[in-house]
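User: New here, please read:
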Amino acid sequence: MLREIIRNWKKFERLGLGLVILVLLVLTWLPYIYLASQTPVGFVYNSSTFVNPGDNTVYFSYIRQGAEGKWLVDNMYTSEVTLPVLQPFWILLGKFSKLFSLDPPTIFHLVRTILIPIFIFFSYLFISYFLIDRKTRQIALWFFSLGAGLGWLFVLAKPFFWFNNAWHNVPFDFFIPDAFPFTSMVISPHFILSWLLLLLTLNFGYLAIKYNNYFYTVISALIGGILLLLHPFYIPSVFGILGVYWLVLSIQRRTFFWSGTLNLSLIFLAALPSVGYYIYLYFFDWVTHIKTIQNFLPSPKLFITFLSFGFTFISSLLAVWFFRQKIAQQVKDFSWLLAWSITTALLLYTPFLWQRRLAEGWFFPLAILFAFLLVEIDKYFFAKYKDWSIKRWFVWVPVILVFIMSNLNFLGLNFFYIQQKSYAYYYFPQEFLAAANWLEKNTTPDKIIFTNYDMWFRTSPALVTRRQYLGHLVETVDSHKKYLEMKWFFQNNSQDEKKYEFLQKTGINYIVYYSEAPDFNIFQPQEKNYLQPIFTQNNITIYQVVLNNANE
């Protein structure tokens, strides 16, 4: 079935697919090339954009551990000894990093680049399955690849809205990159892989249930098992969407859909090892339990979600309503696309801690239905007004700009922040590398590092496999408490007895002190007899904690 679709692609479809891939490769590399070229003297580019720089360093840390020979990764962003966990994607990248002598950021972006054409190829394959008209397919592909929501309207009203509002009320277009294909392709290879695996799991699962095809069942089950091992977030999405579609078929057929039940059950059984593994970690590894609770990802207010997806969602429903006779002829099994769309919309406000992550995948059915609506509107005006063919570009160009504006803004914010010299998003001082090299050569992996500079504790585990007392909002156990402790320690130069007791209690071995750290440079470590300087370069000094020399 799917092979036949590929064989029947016309030349202009293949050229269009290639052009989309080329455009995406250029656009998704553009911010990185620019940011690297703007690296200030004395600094190092962190290989990230303004979104997720802290998360990327976690992934770089995993890759580094894989390159160092590990098959299970340790959490270097917290001082507590944690249970090593499976991270197969990042470990695999680590092995390739070692094999080809590439550093973690390089292998990260190389794999990101390789995954883009694979993801777009399979996306167009399924778009071609659902859309019969070839030109509509092309429109859907462009919209799916480059489109987003209307969150840019909120940005226009409050250009610095993420500084002034609760972080979870930022539009999906700007703060939740895995919600849309384009921002996923810009940010991280694991977002692209997640999108790809989710599309394959759901669409092959749909084919398995609809046609009672056990070959598709096996494919969906195997891919779903991998997906849920990499991203357990999507358990509700996979079984919620497939379950609702099974229910729709049962209602349509007015009988209990036994064959569909069996296919769905087999997909669920294949996912049990992945699901069971995370259930085990949640209940038997206290660090994973705390991280899960800390990983609070609520969906934004309904108004923000509407700006991000709502117009496309409502338009898709209107397409089904106003063109319900034509849609049955032009869109194959739109009941599956509707089940996917409506279920996802509901999942965003179900009582899961990671609500907003469930937006991933929603844009696929929306792009197909929205492309159908645009084509039907165009046909209507072409039939009614003879001169529409001349004027149509004056209408469609603004429409196109409306739906790619968020992604253009997403790219443009990187250029804006550089012009504003907001370097903390992108660069860290060069002496960090020297400090990391010293720690790697002169300390053991069980040592605990404490610092007064957030760029160090976010970046350090990506440079050297050593534990940070405080490192990441989610990865660090009790991160809020530890952040307050860091503020207390470095924002005054007194209470030495309590600070000595704090170092003794927490088991901190080394303090990496950056004299230019804003707000946290009041503490003067050179005056403390319980701290011994052992490495200095420019503005950074490493102090070893000497626990038998408490201040009197």
